[in-house]
């Protein structure tokens, strides 16, 4: 039997998954004490069951990670047959290399924790760098919300078969070219297109500081679609959109899988050159942070289909 548990990281998404599967979230108690310690207690029988824990590790990243670890330990102590982690947003994924001498490689550390605590399999959505998959020594699946976003943008534009000559698929930096190409393949239905690339300079000594230097490609008179995996400060996408506008783009749309937003970021997005911002619910977004240009899609259906195969 498969049982679904939810951490506190995205209860709304877990509820959507359970509703699609016509089941309930299994009972568990999660408590945060005054000293910030967390306790997880499983409140139903799970012996010989396959147990799925849905928990993104976005802000507060460390609390959400500890909940995830404790769920796994508690379920194994109750003799669950398997414990599977579905992590819609995999926190620390951007810290996958040493950007400066002396830094830890945080993504690797988190993976080692997940393995040693006893997860039997991990699912994530659109990992920052696919090379990180190779670090896992347990079964791992990198799901993608890019087809979902591509279909929604075609619906928004009211077109079924986009013509390459009217669109520009844009990567906001050199590292995202493959992601943009994957999106474009879903959007056009073939791979006979080019990806335009923005040259970005990042200052590793200043948090969230980037600058768009140049655009390699032709966006003039086209609808430019900027594709990225995550937005936090918004500088990369806002600067990229401004450069596309300067180069003559007819309209600028954004497709981003994960949105980790603040009031400051949403205000900047609303006044930017971006006309529509498409994202997903891998990270919960307070109603106060939802803004006029946002179109949010749910990945619950994708998760539900994976759970059906267990």
UniProtKB/TrEMBL annotation:
* Pfam families for the chain: Pribosyl_synth, Pribosyltran_N
GO biological process terms on file: 5-phosphoribose 1-diphosphate biosynthetic process; purine nucleotide biosynthetic process
Which Gene3D superfamilies does this UniProt record tie to the protein? 3.40.50.2020
Query: What's in the keyword line of the UniProt record?
Result: ATP-binding, Kinase, Magnesium, Metal-binding, Nucleotide biosynthesis, Nucleotide-binding, Transferase
Q: Which residues form the Ribose-phosphate pyrophosphokinase N-terminal domain?
A: 2-118
Under which main EC class is this enzyme filed?
Answer: transferase
Q: Which reaction does it catalyse?
A: D-ribose 5-phosphate + ATP = 5-phospho-alpha-D-ribose 1-diphosphate + AMP + H(+)
Q: Which one of the record's GO molecular function terms can you name? A: kinase activity
Q: Which InterPro entries match?
A: Pribosyltran_N, PRTase-like, PRTase_dom, Rib-P_diPkinase
Provide a GO CC annotation, any one.
ribose phosphate diphosphokinase complex
* Enzyme Commission code(s) on record: 2.7.6.1
The protein, known as: ribose-phosphate diphosphokinase
* Source organism (scientific name): Candidatus Roizmanbacteria bacterium RIFCSPLOWO2_02_FULL_36_11
